[in-house]
Specification:
Elements (H helix, E strand, L loop, with lengths): L1 E5 L3 H12 L3 E6 L5 H9 L3 E4 L4 H4 L4 E4 L9 H9 L3 E2 L1 H5 L6 E6 L4 H14 L4 E5 L5 H7 L4 E5 L2 H5 L8 E4 L14 H9 L10 E5 L3 H9 L5 E6 L7 E5 L2 E5 L6 E4 L8 H16 L4 H10 L8 E6 L2 E5 L6 H9 L5 E5 L12 H7 E7 L4 H7 L5 E5 L2 H11 L5 E4 L12 H13 L2
Parallel strand pairs: 1-2, 1-4, 2-3, 4-5, 6-8, 6-9, 7-8, 9-10, 10-11, 11-12, 16-20, 17-18, 17-20, 18-19
Antiparallel strand pairs: 12-13, 13-14, 15-16
Helix pairs in contact: 1-7, 6-11, 6-12, 16-17
Length: 445
């Protein structure tokens, strides 16, 4: 059996390692450059590879192809040819899942999935479970399956990864929320993106669980019109349930069938903000399903450190708080960030627009934002929408200037918030690079 891996990054190399171990004839092809650390792994494991090209005769003879989630099907010539030939194209998750007996917990959503994934992992790890972290975060799932050391996996799953599944099913699935994102990959049709997220539950049975945000319109609408066989566990900030999780008078309650009720005062939790209460309810629901003691859950919720680049407090300089929310790559994520601001805010925004509707932020911008710094190659849309709403709007094309300008525009008691609502690829390698440059620039003030 010939396995061709398109993309020589973390998931690609991990899949290659697993494929080799399971007896496949493996070939890795990357249209860009493969990082030196991954080249070394491929060479050490005697796996054939190429970079900066896709050689058709070495690819179109595959029995199965694992495609990196970053490669868009509609724009890649080699992917189109593979589809024409009817060669199965899988995601890393689909390829690796049959090779492990471990329980998987799959977490998706437009926002909050990284925090929820990290928090869920923290709860299970703190309870002494033999658990690993993978998917869209940390070490490749396939690579870890090849090493076969874990009883359960907490996996962050993007819509692109879910598009490449056929039979995979998580024992526990979470959909944190759904809002328009990556629509450029879904023909600008929101319903296609929603359907993509719900692929997480398509193979689940009556023995599996789907934990979901009952306040989310898109999720509620899908569940009204479609069926899943999984047992449903909702969470909400406004509703209460016999089975599910909710907030009642500043107390989080989680009720799971045949499990002792869990309660905790929200102010004793490490995470702050309404959106983080939802993340905590989702993660706690998993912990209860995995039969973790209430005392252990409480302790873990009170000492969780949070996620880098997500509402990360960097420094306070001259009584101005600088916050790195570079991971906010869509409007909905920035909505949560602005909603949690309690002081006048200088907002750094911009990047690669993914079909954003900034009007959703209008009421928050009017209420909370005193100045906007546009950090992107093309800021026209942001300027058109907010130009008459704030007193000061400035364009810059690098992070150092953005931070220096923010310092000039801010006064004691203000907040400087980097929450771009956009992808980063116009000026930065990725959102981590953007966030790290922001932190460096702040430290140099």
């Amino acid at each position: 059996m010939r396995l061709v891996v398109l993309g020589g990054g973390e998931s690609g190399v991990g899949t290659a390692i697993l494929g080799k171990k399971k007896g496949y004839d493996v070939f890795v092809s990357d249209f860009g450059k493969i990082k030196d650390k991954y080249k070394k792994v491929l060479i050490d494991n005697d796996i054939a590879w190429e970079q900066e090209k896709h050689t058709e005769e070495l690819i179109l003879n595959a029995n199965v192809v694992m495609k990196s989630p970053g490669i868009p099907e509609k724009k890649s010539a080699i992917v189109k040819k593979l589809i024409e030939k009817g060669i199965p194209i899988l995601s890393e998750i689909e390829f690796a899942a049959p090779f492990t007996k471990a329980i998987t917990i799959g977490i998706t959503g437009s926002n909050g999935k990284t925090t929820t994934t990290m928090l869920t992992y923290h709860l299970l790890k703190s309870a002494g479970l033999n658990v690993a972290l993978g998917g869209n975060i940390g070490k490749s799932f396939a690579w870890q399956v090849a090493e076969d050391k874990f009883d359960s996996y907490v996996l962050e799953l993007s819509s692109f990864q879910l598009d490449g599944i056929i039979n995979y099913k998580p024992h526990i699935a979470i959909i944190t929320n759904i809002s328009p994102d990556h629509l450029d990959r879904y023909d600008y049709k929101y319903e296609k993106y929603i359907d993509s997220k719900f692929r997480i539950t398509m193979n689940q049975t009556e023995e599996d669980y789907l934990i979901y945000d009952a306040d989310d319109e898109a999720i509620a609408e899908w569940l009204k019109n479609n069926k899943t066989r999984a047992q449903l566990i909702p969470f909400s900030l406004t509703k209460t349930f016999e089975i599910g999780a909710f907030i009642k008078e500043k107390t989080m309650e989680v009720n799971i069938i045949n499990e002792e009720e869990f309660t905790m005062e929200t102010e004793t939790m490490a995470l702050e903000g309404k959106h983080n209460m939802k993340n905590a309810m989702a993660a706690t629901s998993v912990a209860k399903l995995m039969k973790i003691r209430n005392a252990t859950i409480r302790e873990s919720l009170s000492n969780f450190q949070g996620v880098e680049h997500r509402l990360e407090k960097v420094l306070k300089i001259q009584n101005v708080q600088y916050i790195n929310d570079s991971k906010a790559t869509n409007v909905n994520a920035t909505f949560f960030a602005l909603d949690s601001m309690n002081t006048p805010t200088v907002w750094i925004v911009g990047g690669v627009d993914k079909g954003n509707d900034y009007n959703e932020l209008m009421s928050l911008v009017r209420e909370k934002v005193k100045a906007i710094i546009c950090l992107g190659v093309d800021n026209r849309k942001i300027i058109d929408i907010f130009g008459n709403v704030v007193d000061m709007m400035i364009e810059v094309n690098n992070m150092e200037d953005a931070v220096k300008m923010a310092q000039r525009l801010s006064e004691k008691g203000d907040t400087v918030l980097l929450s771009p609502a956009c992808a980063s690829f116009d000026l930065f390698e990725n959102y981590e690079d953007r966030g790290n440059q922001f932190k460096q620039a702040v430290k140099h003030l």
